[in-house]
Amino acid sequence: MKNFGIYFNPNYTDKEAVFNLLKKLYKTKKLSFYKFSEQKELLPDFISCIDDYSEIHLDCILSFGGDGTFLQAVSFSLKMKTPLLGINLGKLGFLSESSIAELEKSIDELKNNKFKVQKRMLLKTVLKRNGKTIFSSLALNDAVIYKGVTPKLIDIKFYCNRRFVVDTRCDGIIVSTPTGSTAYSLSAGGPILSPVMDAIVVAPINPHILSVRPMVFSLKDKISFRIRSLNGNSILQLDGKNSYTLQENDEVIVTGASQKVSFIKLTNKTFYQILRKKFYMGRK
Predict the structure, then answer these.
(1) FRET partner for 48 with CA separation of 20 to 30 A, picked from 118, 156, 219, 280?
(2) pLDDT tens column, 91-127
(3) Pairing mode of beta strands 84-88, 98-99
(4) Would residue 67 show up in a list of annotated catalytic residues for this protein?
């Protein structure tokens, strides 16, 4: 590997220390670093800017930040058909495989082909209004229907493959991938799934009826939600970002996407080892 894309958390405070380390690696290891036009002013000049995606082949995209930064970098990974490696600059960094202290070692492993590529599923979310599609996008972690600032619950009618599942009053619904099962869905009581699985988790947020519990569906299922009894501006959120304001009778359809995103795995640490370390799982 020689050509590396760089995606950086613009809110990180100690940028210069990271940039100086990248400049050192750029010179000593004869690497080529590239930045995306959206971050042209943020990153230093020794990192070349990509103006035309079709003209550059990247071997890997390095995401510097936390899980939020990694989620934003997914769109560039899909456009460039390039695997992602997270370099954690945040707190938990569950999606990151490396840290800033391990960056030089990680670069050496990449150059020497000491890594594996792991495919992770994505969600495709479609918003329909009056029978017409008005929004469509992909998500790595989750799609969330949320009641917004109103103190009242919203009514959501839930279907799987056009068959009625349940009608629930709640604060919202989280639809997550196995990768996202350790994020917001987990906070709502959803199960932890192995990230390489192909499955969809549906977890209600604070349902009024306690028997409405999280459920797991097949990747092949078409899951849809009809929004009813709104008392304000409810929101469709994808990977933690507000994507669209919902209206009464809107339909949100979630399916497994045809694309998958590629993660670079450097170590032999299992998913369960990471769970124990980062979530303190099983500690007394």
Answers:
(1) 118
(2) 777 899 999 999 999 999 999 999 999 999 999 999 9
(3) parallel
(4) yes
Q: Which of 194, 207, 124 is nearest to 158 (CA)?
A: 207
Structural domains present in the chain:
3-115+266-278 (3.40.50.10330), 122-259 (2.60.200.30)
**All residues at 6 or more sequence positions from 15 whose CB lies less than 8 Å from its CB, including other chains:** 8
Q: Which tokens hold the place of 255?
A: 């399916």
Distance of alpha carbon 124 from the chain centroid: 12
User: What does the pLDDT read at residue 4?
Assistant: 97
pLDDT mean across residues, the chain = 93
Give pLDDT, residue 11: 93
- Given the DSSP bridges, would you call strands 60-65 and 84-88 parallel, antiparallel or unpaired? parallel
SS (H, E, C) 173-212: EEEECCHHHHCHHHHCCCCCCCCCCCEEEEEEECCCCCCC
Instruction: Identify whether the C-beta of residue 168 lies closer than 8 Å to the C-beta of residue 208.
Output: yes
Using one digit for the tens of pLDDT, what is the confidence trace for 226-275?
998 777 789 999 999 999 999 999 999 999 999 999 999 997 778 888 88
The catalytic residue among 51, 59, 67, 239 is: 67
Return the number of other C-beta atoms located less than 10 Å from residue 134's C-beta: 11
